[in-house]
Amino acid sequence: MSSAIRLIAEDGELDLVEGFLPPAECAGLGSRLLGELAWHGEEIAIFGRRMAVPRLLCWYGDPGAVYRYSGVSHEPLPWDAALAGLRDRIEAFTGRSFNAVLCNRYRTGKDSMGWHADDEPELGERPFIASLSLGAERTFRIRHRRTGKTLDVPLRDGDLLLMGGALQSCWKHCIPKTAKACGERVNLTFRRIVQPG
Ligand SMILES: O=C(O)CCC(=O)C(=O)O
Ligand SMILES: [Fe+2]
Hints:
Blueprint: E1 5-8, E2 13-17, H1 23-36, E3 43-46, E4 49-52, E5 56-61, E6 67-69, E7 72-74, H2 81-94, E8 100-106, E9 113-116, E10 129-135, E11 138-144, E12 150-155, E13 160-164, H3 167-170, E14 171-175, E15 185-191
Antiparallel strand pairs: 1-2, 2-13, 3-4, 5-8, 6-7, 8-15, 9-14, 10-13, 10-15, 11-12, 11-14
The structure holds 2-oxoglutaric acid and fe (ii) ion.
Residues 102, 104, 113, 118, 131, 133, 140, 155, 173, 175, 187, 189 line the site of 2-oxoglutaric acid.
């Protein structure tokens, strides 16, 4: 495992740990999560029309770690063993604690996540979020809200991306669609819900 590389140091911190998980572990773990987790689609209302979110997702965590996304409150599913094992390792590495994980599954290059910040009230001020990627490489794009400064970070199998400080209030991020041939990707964002609601 390599050490963290600081990618952003102003108005929040963004750190990348390339190969946090060794390649030998990634393939098995990726297919286990694809098979085991309770993947489902979601819809969001945009201008009164219901639209399918362009990816699959699921939410696991401690009882009470309720999270509101796509306009709906989500009760967590109880920790899956593979997810709990990863949580423990990421907690040991970062010295932070997490009580829930949002899992996103990008089936093809057409699946994506639009511009957003993880700044929901239940994450509290200056949330610390650890994001583990498995499977196909995708680009994580981050843009400063005021200056427009933009950075593209390739996220590969086994990489761990850490977001902290004021990052969510000063920057937005997304996973753009790609026209490149690309396999499935799973991303796990470990979070701490501080204010159940
Ligand atoms: O898939 C990714 O790498 C990003 C996921 C993300 O931004 C989120 O879950 O909030
Ligand atoms: Fe995010």
